Amino acid sequence: MDNKKIKNLQAGDSVQSFFLVKAADCKTTNNNKHYLDLTLVDQTGEINAKLWDHNPEEGPQYSPNSLVKVKGTTNEWQNRLQLKIEKIRMATDGDGLEIGDFVPAAPYSPEFMYTEIESYMNKIKNQDMRNIVKSIVTANKEKLLLYPAAKQNHHAVRSGLMYHIMTMLQMGEKASEVYVGLNRDLLFSGIILHDIAKTAEMNASELGIVSEYTIEGELLGHIIQGIKMIEQTAIAVGADREVSLLLQHMILSHHYEPEFGSPKRPMIPEAEILHYLDMMDARMYDMGRVLGSVEEGKLSEKVWLLNNRKLYKPSLKNEDQQ
């Protein structure tokens, strides 16, 4: 067994390792042959895998959140790494594996990140805003501790949603020190709530792996669901109408463009800052994830999430971190 980690795989590598199944689907080729399409993960990342000429009526069903042992070869398909499976089997008790060891997770514990977010909630001086935010966060705490920020894109790891919120709050606090006219209460509240409805948009397991979107998530999406949460909570706590409207606008406009789900662009400075903090944090996360497996002085493969750009990892040292 070579037990290669996903982040270290390159095209042409032979692979014989254990992985966690994130998603599994039996599909059909143009010539009507069945194949198994899998998304495999370990703590370092994920990779698409194909088992060709698969008979769905024979052998075990490889379902999400199960551990499998895979033998195969990596190749490149449409600028993305893919694993061609030669052999696959379910992991057994005799393999002595812990499923939690295969789940990609945020770099901090859920408890620490939740405490950090609580500290920012306590900095919100406007009573109505603080009541709305605390009520929504407390109601969603159980899911918030585990949920990723997305099914496949940025921060798609266990507790990734909290990690995304925490780092945005840290950046938002710095931005408010530069742009002193910003309403920090509104900015902190908007950051905490901007993606909170992803806990209702997606269904995730106890491992923090999203299996599917909810019916309401498919029909409405987390932006509209978030607005509903704020509206209902604001009424329940007797909040000022303008406070509710401003928070709803923060969530409604944070994707900026109609084609990305925001029917209104930001109309207040705090909403403008929220959008760019969101974009910046997502981009920095994706860049860090990709460059983590790139050698110094080398280029990465094209990254679909970053508009098919290649990234370069300089050999130049960061003097501040030495």
How would you characterize this protein structure?
The protein has 322 residues and is an alpha+beta fold. It folds into 3 domains: 6-102, OB fold (Dihydrolipoamide Acetyltransferase, E2P), CATH 2.40.50.140; 110-285, Hypothetical protein af1432, CATH 1.10.3210; 292-321, no CATH class. 37% of the residues lie in helices and 20% in strands. It has helices at residues 110-121, 127-139, 141-144, 160-178, 184-193, 198-201, 215-219, 222-237, 241-253, 269-291; strands at residues 14-28, 34-42, 45-51, 67-77, 80-90, 202-204, 210-213, 298-299, 312-313. The strands form 3 sheets. The chain has a 5-stranded mixed β-barrel. A two-stranded antiparallel ribbon has the order 6-7. Strands 8-9 form a two-stranded antiparallel sheet. Helix 4 (160-178) packs antiparallel against helix 5 and helix 9 (241-253) packs parallel to helix 10 (269-291).
